[in-house]
């Protein structure tokens, strides 16, 4: 009667009826007429029952029932994935329990069966499970062992017994991820966790007893390669009220509550937990590894390559010294899922592989086997580079004097944990790969592409040569065609040629295709519109169209080359460009979290950035600007720092965009520059006097910092006249010493960190001084934000940046206002560089 379309109704009915039945009838499950013992030959088919039973609502189709245990087909609600399994059904305890069945054993968790599958207890004494195509899924392999019957005991053990009532086979000998009261794990047996909370197949964690030394060990790895927990049985009794260690290295749950039902389960997160039925629900009574392991000691606590910090959640490995990030977070909303390499490691070209050292971390698991006799770090690293299956290497030197060391290669990526000082020197290196330019011709002629036999290989080589030649011919022909079609006026475009390291040159057509005919507009900047696109290789890009600047100039390409050569982690990277006739387009890496303004001005609590994130963003903007101002060959003044020009990548790393564009369009268009550059409200007061130094960026940075801290726009016309301008409001609040009033009101986390936020407001005040010479340079700002100022003997920073003592507003027509501070800053800071 349970038919797909009426499932909801049926479900409701099921719930209602079962409660009804249960309150009417007693809780003795025998009343439902299921036996606890059967004799062969008999079989059961997994079908939806014709008469309604409350079992069905619990997803169980019973075969044997005894006490609190039921054995039968257990189906997920759709009934498509079923297991032959045993569940605890705490029926004798209260009437709610049918909805809390807990599976404690299953026969076929790696191969679920569907409707029509058949369990057969044959005359030969074999218990077999076949799916609806009669394919054998599971069997007890007990043919010829004189099996006389099968019973489910009141402890939840399924037993096949012979004529002497001797046990031939029992489910207790084949545990899955649970141990119930009365069940003992002995050496040779293993608990194996589920893959995940939703994927119930056998996972990576296991728990067992080492027969040779009597240790209890928990391990990770498809081949149980690494232990993350080891404990000698008899030494442990701290938590023994929850489990007992029996003589002969047996381990099992202990009925400390002296009532009800309990079980121990190895979770898919590697924790071993004790559950008990308490007050009509399953309660986690204890975590059995708790005394020995902390949260970061579990091998995959932060997923692959994730770095666990105590109390600080999960992160990805930091970028290397060239600021190239090699790893990205798989899911920003769920950092526990770990990180993936930006470029997967392919063993083909080891010349592109290198080892990235990550400092102050160690592998999550501490029990590393010493299975190599390498004793120096360089050989250890080299050995990993030479071994394709090595994904990371851990080197420890315990006692250099005696050469005690450990070199461990990992073939399966795990989590790492932040670590302070250890008594040994520890190094962790991750294998990373730089991107490879694919070489289609080499690929084409590679013999590996063709079948192994010699004769066919020859044919393959010949074919490849022919194909290769055709391909080259085609290339030459295409180039020739392009050459003769070329408009002579465009000759300048060839200026760039193809120098490696420079941005890629795209044709207009290519970008048209990549952006799907410029259909997905991301935004509009001072220079033109920005569109989202995808390159054929799959890379996401943002394409900026520079419109209305007339024909492409030679200087354009030179400037593109300059901008394209600026690489910094906190600058949006220019990956390519297009210069064709009057089309000037810039191709940037795509930043999936958009611009900062969408995050700091938004009132949606779910989207609001917390204080730590905002502080990080402030530091990162400062980093990017400091690099533009002094870190690269050519000083670049941005001139248009505002939240719209700060972009956020998938990990909320801030990157400054749009730098260098004023130079792109050329000096002769300086009129364009002054009309388009600089956004009212963010422009420093000296703009009007045409004294343009990099300090104009520092001023704008100060405004952005203030906006980040206050969570409001610099100019907000929806507010009362006197509060509309953030800078004048800030000035007033500073005079009254009421910094606190300004902290983002819509964000609790900002409010609870108000003290630190106010400190940061002083930084903003420092940058907003009317006299540009008094503003700090960006590099000083970075040092200050990083808390490294004490190291600078040159400057006396025993006083933090002063809160502006005397503030005055200059009545500029634009919204620009200025703050002058008492000159506590040493004059050596002054003056543009
Ligand atoms: C069933 O559970 C509910 C809530 O979990 C509880 O309020 C109720 O008392 C339980 N019924 C019985 C008979 O225990
Ligand atoms: C339940 O199993 C026990 C053995 O553990 C057995 O003695 C008892 O008779 C069984 N109960 C029923 C109702 O079959
Ligand atoms: C096996 O147990 C059953 C009941 O538990 C009993 O009736 C029977 O006599 C026993 N058989 C032997 C050989 O002990
Ligand atoms: C593991 O999978 C079984 C089904 O095979 C399920 O009953 C059990 O609740 C799962 N355990 C965990 C910890 O998710
Ligand atoms: C068990 O312990 C012995 C001795 O410590 C060790 O050599 C062996 O590798 C361990 N076995 C397993 C499976 O961990
Ligand atoms: C685990 O071991 C089996 C054989 O023992 C091997 O076939 C398999 O590739 C190994 N898996 C990994 C991930 O090393
Ligand atoms: C360890 O060293 C010995 C000789 O010193 C050598 O024969 C053996 O191959 C080495 N083993 C490994 C795993 O490098
Ligand atoms: C490569 O490393 C794996 C483990 O990461 C190891 O099992 C294997 O023996 C190594 N191969 C060589 C040739 O050293
Ligand atoms: C090159 O070879 C690799 C594997 O050898 C293959 O995955 C890839 O598709 C090939 N590329 C081309 C363009 O044929």
UniProtKB/TrEMBL annotation:
The keyword Glycoprotein applies. It holds the Pfam family PAN_2. Residues 516-785 form the Protein kinase domain. The lineage of its organism: Eukaryota, Viridiplantae, Streptophyta, Embryophyta, Tracheophyta. It is a single-pass type I membrane protein. ATP binds at residue 544. Its EC number is 2.7.11.1. PROSITE patterns: BULB_LECTIN (PS50927), PAN (PS50948), PROTEIN_KINASE_ATP (PS00107), PROTEIN_KINASE_DOM (PS50011), PROTEIN_KINASE_ST (PS00108). Residues 347-428 form the Apple domain. InterPro entries: Bulb-type_lectin_dom, Bulb-type_lectin_dom_sf, G-type_lectin_kinases/EP1-like, Kinase-like_dom_sf, Pan_app, Prot_kinase_dom, Protein_kinase_ATP_BS, Ser/Thr_kinase_AS. One of its GO terms (molecular function) is protein serine/threonine kinase activity. Keywords: ATP-binding, Disulfide bond, EGF-like domain, Glycoprotein, Kinase, Lectin, Membrane, Nucleotide-binding, Phosphoprotein, Receptor, Serine/threonine-protein kinase, Signal, Transferase, Transmembrane, Transmembrane helix. It is an enzyme of class 2 (transferase). It is found in: Membrane. Residues 1-31 form the signal peptide. It catalyses: L-threonyl-[protein] + ATP = O-phospho-L-threonyl-[protein] + ADP + H(+); L-seryl-[protein] + ATP = O-phospho-L-seryl-[protein] + ADP + H(+). The chain crosses the membrane at residues 459-482. Residues 49-173 form the Bulb-type lectin domain. This is Receptor-like serine/threonine-protein kinase.
